[in-house]
Structures
1.
Amino acid sequence: GWVKPRLLLSHGAHHPSDVATQGLGKSWRLSPPFLVAFTHSSFFPFRKHALNCHRMKPALFSVLCEIKEKTVLSIRGIQEEDPPDAQLMRLDNMLLAEGVSGPEKRGRGGPMAVAATSGGCPNDNSIEHSDYRAKLSQIRQIYHSELEKYEQACSEFTTHVMNLLREQSRTRPISPKEIERMVNIIHGKFSTIQMQLKQSTCEAVMILRSRFLDARRKRRNFSKQATEVLNEYFYSHLSNPYPSEEAKEELAKKGGITVSQVSNWFGNKRIRYKKNMGKFQEEANIYAAKTAVDATNVVAQGNQANSPSTPNSGEWEPVKRPDGFFCL
DNA sequence: TAGTATGATTTAAC
DNA sequence: GTTAAATCATACTA
């Protein structure tokens, strides 16, 4: 199921101010002792106002910022910059291809189109198709809702931290650059969360897809209409039951199945008929009689008989395999 | 529930 | 590419 990505803040930070002090704390702790003295908690309640109004404050503040900046840069210099995230790009591409992100796909596309044309029973496939689409739409909805939530949370959190730091910058050496860096850190954290969301979404789509494709493999008997059409052709072309590509297309159209299903059916039928002609004799008689009745009706209507291109003259003479194996 | 029917897949030959 | 043949997996039926 769905695993809602959690807000991942490093070192157990649970509040914006924690992050603020955490981010700054490292460099702050590296500052010389005399600087720490100015910021000691017992110092503030009594001296805060005096400190802010002190004539040396601006000068001292800029020095503090400079020292801090150098310290931070020396630490950051050790750390490697993140490489461009290829995985994020892959996730984005997949979500776009699956129709989760970007404009919603309408009509036939992706695996749905395959199933909609390959199954034996079009109605059932329509149900599966709409089921797939409904579930994909659900995933899409959850994805966008979560994404929006995270973006809003990120924006609110950033504003909150920025305000907090601006407020603190009146009494602590926090430069605008530092605030910018903090904003970048927050955005980085939220990007990680977004990536987790994208990953979960991709997993959900893959699971849905595999389930759908498994369902597609389920065998369904052809409709009576399809079986009728196929059998009629088979028994009326018993001498050469190898429909041409055009004939296959026609049969597929009439039976509401695919051309490859027609090919499969004829492959199965030929081998099974050959193996046990006796079993199919009754069926053959029924279709022979049916064909005869149809032909009589056509003649009775005064039209030219629409007889099969290869009449049932008795022998199977496969053009490609003239081994007499299919003789009646 | 076992046996049978049937659509799909795989393999090998052409 | 098509096809036969074997096989698989599932649907159907008594």
2.
Amino acid sequence: MGVCFLQPEQKLLRSASLKVTPQRTAILELLRESREHPSVDQVHRMILQKYPSVSLATIYKTLDLFKEKGLIQEVAASARQVGYDGNPGFHPHLVCKSCKEILDMPEGKLPQEYIKEASKNYGFQVDSQQLFLYGQCAKCRKN
Amino acid sequence: MGVCFLQPEQKLLRSASLKVTPQRTAILELLRESREHPSVDQVHRMILQKYPSVSLATIYKTLDLFKEKGLIQEVAASARQVGYDGNPGFHPHLVCKSCKEILDMPEGKLPQEYIKEASKNYGFQVDSQQLFLYGQCAKCRKN
DNA sequence: ATGGGTGCAAAACATTTGCAAAAGT
DNA sequence: ACTTTTGCAAATGTTTTGCACCCAT
């Protein structure tokens, strides 16, 4: 396959030493462009529009793989609300208990004090973190 | 039923306006005394030792109910690692990626700055939060 | 050429539901 | 007495697996 004009998603797959397939490219692209935090099933349905034969099993395997490689992050807002975020970097998530929407809070910085404390008091080496703020979003408060 | 000497768990059930049953008392007691973060199934197995006929469906219903009432918190460290914590108050969780153990970090305070920012920038009203720090625990680092 | 990725269907596993009997207030 | 909770079994939903074929390197 030609290698001259790679999309950013293809570069990312390469640098994670993964084979570049249309399915993987499409899934990664979709997540990186989305502002939502689609579930496994939602990712599947969206991918199906472009590639009508992609199986759900592939979506499961691919999302797991991307997560292991640090290309995306899993956002488990609760046991029954799990989504995927194409931005693997730390940012707090606002989870509305009414409409279930999850908003990114891009401007958050890392809670360094916790990382130090984990190391000092527990000998625990932190390599990533997730912060969830639960409550009610602006829209839902107006009802 | 006599009402004279109530256990703390029974008082808690009362104040959440829930009926006091042996199953509920046992589940709440178990979680409040545990330092682990048992899964639905682990709770079921532990309860079975004392009450051999408690059904899994009851465990599901009860944990959901306790969570709604704020008696416990659900700890979804990832999509496939969900446990329950008898302490409903905020405290960071250290999640070891190797041995999957979840440690409580009791001394953490709330990240107030995020709550203010959520309100100011998004009109979002925060009423609870969860912080997960992922990495490697002291034991696992020694291998 | 070869190792890894994909799709399929089945298997395994997890969660929810409806209902009758039991228990709490 | 009334209402809620429980246990059961079935139904539903979700995730994983094994395998043959295909594709990227």
